[in-house]
Specification:
The structure is a homodimer of 155-residue chains.
Chain A (H helix, E strand, L loop, with lengths): L2 H16 L4 H12 L5 E2 H8 L3 H13 L4 E5 L2 E7 L4 H26 L5 H36 L1
Antiparallel strand pairs in A: 1-3, 2-3
Helix pairs in contact in A: 1-2, 2-4, 3-4, 5-6
The first copy, chain A, binds a DNA duplex (30 and 30 nucleotides) through α4 and β3.
DNA sequence: CGGAAGTTTCAGTCAATGCTGAATAATGAG
DNA sequence: CTCATTATTCAGCATTGACTGAAACTTCCG
């Protein structure tokens, strides 16, 4: 791994860590975006990232569960091969959209909790709820359109 | 604060903490969305959240810097009054959009680091870069449209 | 100017948690 | 079946960082 690649991997790790993931998850995802060959064993990744096998194992489960990486096997080879598949971007954007959904849900419970207040007092939370609802609806629509156009353009 | 309100505040705190903010920031923001009166002193907030004055001070700076709350003063009253202004939603959505921008920037540096590879090897990161660029452009556009429509509807 | 009320700063504490590394389990080869 | 290799689990460590509380600072009033 060159120093530029290392910087990219580390930067991705730090940034995604700030968004609630672990640094290792960010590093692993970043590495899988630029590694060659694109499919890597746990041992490969552990060596590239200077990380323990245990960390790779746990992080791989995390990333695979959220759809960011794919785990593959080959006949006559017990090792697992990890890669960052194209669909990962769908998952990434999908989880971003899920944030809006969750926020709207929280706001909804909050509105319920203050249901007996005058409308004036509920206005702030109501607006928050409305905006989240709008974004939750529209952002995935725009993303889906982009992905559709892109796959058509490729075909 | 009723138990329902308390749940809302705590839930907001936990959720925003998971997104990289502190629990206290989430609680404070949540509280300012539902409190009555809508403007509260540091002492009011500290009491409502069972938090120290120091925590309120630091969190207030954080939230004010990112535009989520407004700090106001009144003549002949040294206390500061905090509130969640309508513009806060713009800031909130803006910082969400900033995430896409930052990710595209990271991807850009990554692409530079592997510039001498064959195109095939750069495809994964290139696609990531493209998608982030698209979202960075389109999502704010959709949001701006919504805010425009909404303010027109209100006027 | 002196003092009261409020705010900010900061050192210290404590809990949370990401990572390591060794032990354990699982899998395929011979 | 047994062995070698790979994957997973988990207890422990170290680090991080959010919060507290007291001290320092600021500002306004008498």
């Amino acid at each position: 791994m060159t120093s530029g690649e290392s910087e990219f991997v580390e930067e991705m790790g730090q940034y995604l860590a700030g968004l609630g993931m672990t640094p290792m998850a960010g590093r692993m995802w970043g590495w899988l975006l630029i590694c060659d060959p694109p499919e890597q064993t746990a041992a490969d990744i552990a060596e590239a990232l200077n990380a323990s096998r245990g960390a790779i194992s746990g992080t791989a489960r995390l990333l695979a569960t959220s759809g960011l990486i794919r785990r593959g096997t080959r006949r006559g080879d017990r090792r697992e091969y990890f890669s960052a598949p194209p669909e990962a971007l769908d998952s990434l954007l999908g989880s971003a959209a899920a944030i809006y959904h969750h926020m709207r849900a929280i706001a909804e419970r909050g509105l319920h909790a203050i249901a007996d207040r005058p409308a004036e007092s509920k206005a702030r939370l109501q607006e928050f709820y409305d905006v989240m609802g709008f974004v939750e609806r529209e952002v995935p629509r725009v993303i889906a359109q982009f992905l559709r156009e892109r796959s058509e353009g490729k075909a």
